[in-house]
């Protein structure tokens, strides 16, 4: 399936479904494959950064660069697994894990003050000074019971985000 | 916390011609405004932004504009398949040669009358122009015949009057030919290489065409001036502009460039809708060369389309050119049954300007600071 054939066999679909833990229905996987082939213009079996950036809605998103790091060189199976965090069939825990992974850029299981500051910078750009950003983050962390030197792990994220009504769902268009 | 730390928006906007995307994007489509004091949870919860990004990855309105949907195959069973084969034989071996003959005949007639008229009548400009107009219209009719074009025109035919421009939605270069067979328009086009470019510089020059080059930034001002000069001339052929700036698949319209709407003239909208029953007339310039596209048309049964000449519009008092452009785009989209999308067609060739992202960042930053103040 890493090749460029535009035909998915039933076996392929089931394999992808297994891999993403049934986050998507078989019809949705077929749709996602059509979309994958549409974006993978040179037919290399994975979507290049440039090919993602041809989607203007994606390119203007403040978090696009961080997402591109995660989307780099994904084949179709991994692409579907990546998107599974956005399926309505997936538990809140998995969505929070996805958010955690986005913050944890060095993948060591810990999110530092600087990781959070980086994401905040992506989201606010030049409309807040660096100093102000640090101040806001420090204040909000302290109010939640952490300090500037705290290193948050996944369970902290679950505690902080778990009670909120987090909505992170995307609808896959099915013909 | 004061707002002294707020910096001014960056001035990375170089293109004056690009309409503001924020005027078009549906408001409230992004982060909805939560209330209440800012907590850690609010800073860490990036799910709205992520959802937008994932939504764009899964499906986006821009790519949809340029997708050519391959038609459902209808020849899938035992008795339809031979019928289809028979159809292929007729189209390729009977219709196609006949059409090539018609087209060649047309070219011969055209060139043998155009060249003498062009060179011999140099002194009698008015007569020469009139004849050249008729000849170009004739040539376009030959082209349309070569695809068995079934074109229904609705509405009053264009007239030659100063201070008016015609705008139409764009699906393929054949839009121009279909409209040209009824009226000899002057058109503004991207300069193409190859035989099309040759045609552009010789024959189309006679009806008064304006060239632009998408890749040159300075070009825009030069072209704007040429447009203004053209519409002032009472004698010039009516100017036809495709404000989308690129070919779209005839199911959507992309944003209209405001250039055509700030010339201080009447704008006459034209809506074109192709019926995909026999062939899809969308020219996907990334997938096909124009020659291949023409050949595809010539080996199909027919090109069927409707052309509506709509009521001329002028800039209303207090209306900006962008609002005017959108109003006309509305008229054309409704008439031709097309959906509007808030994207600039040039995004096919270039990245979106950073100011779109900056707008999102600005609104997030402002919301964050506002909530910080709340108790």
UniProtKB/TrEMBL annotation, chain A:
Annotated SUPFAM superfamilies: EF-hand
PROSITE patterns registered for this protein in UniProt: EF_HAND_1, EF_HAND_2
Gene Ontology MF annotations: calcium ion binding
Domain named EF-hand: residues: 91-126
Keyword Protein biosynthesis: no
Keywords for this protein: Calcium
Highest taxon of the lineage: Eukaryota
Protein name (record): EF-hand domain-containing protein
Origin species: Trapa incisa
From TrEMBL, chain B:
Cellular-component GO terms for this entry: endoplasmic reticulum; membrane
GO molecular function: glycerol-3-phosphate O-acyltransferase activity
InterPro entries: LPCAT1-like, Plipid/glycerol_acylTrfase
Recorded coiled-coil stretches: none
Pfam families hit by this protein: Acyltransferase
SMART domains assigned: PlsC (SM00563)
Region spans: Disordered: 1-20, 351-375
Keyword presence, Cytoplasm: no
A biological process term (GO) from this entry: phospholipid biosynthetic process
Domain annotation Phospholipid/glycerol acyltransferase: ranges: 164-275
Pathway the protein contributes to: Lipid metabolism
This protein's record includes keyword Nucleotide-binding: no
Family annotation (PANTHER family): GLYCEROL-3-PHOSPHATE ACYLTRANSFERASE 4, ISOFORM D-RELATED (PTHR23063:SF2), PHOSPHOLIPID ACYLTRANSFERASE (PTHR23063)
Entry similarity comment: Belongs to the 1-acyl-sn-glycerol-3-phosphate acyltransferase family.
Name recorded for this polypeptide: Phospholipid/glycerol acyltransferase domain-containing protein
Native species: Trapa incisa
């Amino acid at each position: 399936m890493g090749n460029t054939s535009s035909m998915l066999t039933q076996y392929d679909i089931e394999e992808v479904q297994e891999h993403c833990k049934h986050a998507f229905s078989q019809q949705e996987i077929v749709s996602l494959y059509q979309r994958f082939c549409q974006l993978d213009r040179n037919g290399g079996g994975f979507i290049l950064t440039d090919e993602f950036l041809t989607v203007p809605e994606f390119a203007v998103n403040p978090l696009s660069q961080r997402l591109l790091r995660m989307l780099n060189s994904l084949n179709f199976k991994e692409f579907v697994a990546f998107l599974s965090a956005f399926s309505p069939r997936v538990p809140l825990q998995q969505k929070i894990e996805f958010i955690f992974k986005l913050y944890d850029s060095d993948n060591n299981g810990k999110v530092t003050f600087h990781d959070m500051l980086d994401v905040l910078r992506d989201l606010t750009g030049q409309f807040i000074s660096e100093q102000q950003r640090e101040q806001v983050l420090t204040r909000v962390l302290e109010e939640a019971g952490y300090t500037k030197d705290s290193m948050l792990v996944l369970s902290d994220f679950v505690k902080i985000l778990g009670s909120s009504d987090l909505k992170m769902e995307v609808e896959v268009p099915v013909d | 916390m004061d707002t002294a730390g707020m910096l001014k928006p960056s001035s990375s906007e170089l293109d004056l011609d690009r309409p503001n995307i924020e005027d078009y994007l549906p408001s409230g489509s992004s982060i909805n405004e939560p209330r209440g004091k800012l907590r850690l949870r609010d800073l860490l919860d990036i799910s709205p932004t992520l959802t937008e990004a994932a939504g764009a990855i899964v499906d986006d309105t821009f790519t949809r504009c340029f997708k050519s949907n391959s038609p459902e195959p209808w020849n899938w069973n035992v008795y339809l398949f031979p019928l289809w084969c028979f159809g292929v034989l007729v189209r390729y071996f009977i219709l196609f040669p006949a059409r090539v003959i018609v087209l060649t005949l047309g070219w011969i007639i055209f060139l043998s009358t155009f060249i003498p008229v062009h060179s011999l009548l140099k002194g009698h400009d008015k007569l020469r122009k009139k004849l050249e107009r008729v000849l170009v219209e004739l040539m376009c009719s030959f082209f349309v015949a070569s695809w068995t074009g079934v074109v229904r025109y609705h509405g009053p035919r264009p007239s030659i009057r100063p201070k008016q421009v015609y705008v139409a939605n764009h699906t393929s270069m054949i839009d121009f030919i279909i409209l040209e067979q009824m009226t000899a328009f002057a058109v503004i086009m991207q300069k193409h290489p190859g035989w099309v470019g040759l045609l552009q510089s010789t024959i189309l020059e006679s009806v008064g065409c304006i060239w632009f080059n998408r890749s040159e930034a300075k070009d825009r001002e030069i072209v704007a001036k040429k447009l203004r000069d053209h519409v002032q001339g009472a004698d010039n052929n009516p100017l036809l502009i495709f404000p989308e700036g690129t070919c779209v698949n005839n199911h959507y319209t992309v944003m209209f460039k405001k250039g055509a709407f700030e010339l201080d003239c009447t704008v006459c909208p034209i809506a074109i809708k192709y019926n995909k029953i026999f062939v899809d007339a969308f020219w996907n310039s990334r997938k096909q060369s124009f020659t291949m596209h023409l050949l595809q048309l010539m080996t199909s049964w027919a090109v069927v389309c409707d052309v509506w000449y709509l009521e001329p519009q002028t800039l209303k008092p207090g209306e900006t050119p962008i609002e005017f452009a959108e109003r006309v785009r509305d008229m054309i989209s409704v008439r031709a049954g097309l959906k509007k999308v808030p994207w600039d067609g040039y995004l096919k060739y270039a990245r979106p300007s950073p100011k779109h992202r900056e707008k999102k960042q600005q609104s997030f930053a402002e919301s964050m600071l506002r909530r910080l103040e709340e108790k």
